[in-house]
């Protein structure tokens, strides 16, 4: 059952796009937003050699970063305009090796308290037109007052 959330900031779409476009590491990995709604964010990355580990699989760090940053984007849709979200902790289950030409992530908020937001991020690998669920992360975020643009 999907929960419906309302955005507190009418400019939440701009906020989330800035979360992605102004993060140098996300730009390095070339992670992109696919779609955004209050409490949800879908993202993807086209797999290149730079994303692979020594055995030719997608590096767990790429999978974890995709899950974590997408969770931050989903949580970021629900906070006020003077707040930012920061990761408190995350746990990831790597269910299968990452093989394919693309990874996609579905991040959905399942708990939203006054300051704590918990998000599930499911990561899928697309290989030869088939999709496999390769990871699930549970990411706990905290909403704090600060500037997402100056590190404030």
TrEMBL record:
Pfam family, one: 4HBT
CDD domains in alphabetical order: PaaI_thioesterase
Organism: Leptospira tipperaryensis
MF terms in GO: fatty acyl-CoA hydrolase activity
Keywords of the record: Hydrolase
Keyword Hydrolase: yes
Thioesterase domain: residues covered: 55-125
Protein name in the entry: Medium/long-chain acyl-CoA thioesterase YigI
């Amino acid at each position: 059952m999907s929960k419906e959330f309302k955005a507190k900031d009418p400019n939440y779409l701009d906020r989330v796009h800035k979360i992605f476009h102004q993060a140098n590491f996300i730009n390095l990995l070339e992670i992109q937003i696919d779609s955004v709604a209050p409490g949800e964010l879908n993202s993807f990355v086209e797999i290149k050699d730079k994303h692979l580990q020594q055995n030719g699989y997608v590096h767990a760090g790429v999978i974890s970063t995709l899950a974590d940053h997408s969770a931050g984007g989903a949580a970021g849709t629900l906070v006020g305009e003077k707040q930012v979200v920061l990761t408190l902790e995350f746990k990831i289950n790597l269910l299968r090796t990452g093989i394919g030409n693309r990874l996609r992530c579905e991040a959905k908020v399942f708990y939203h308290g006054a300051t704590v937001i918990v998000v599930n991020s499911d990561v899928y690998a697309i290989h030869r037109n088939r999709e496999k669920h390769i990871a699930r992360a549970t990411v706990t975020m905290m909403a704090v007052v600060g500037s997402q643009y100056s590190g404030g």
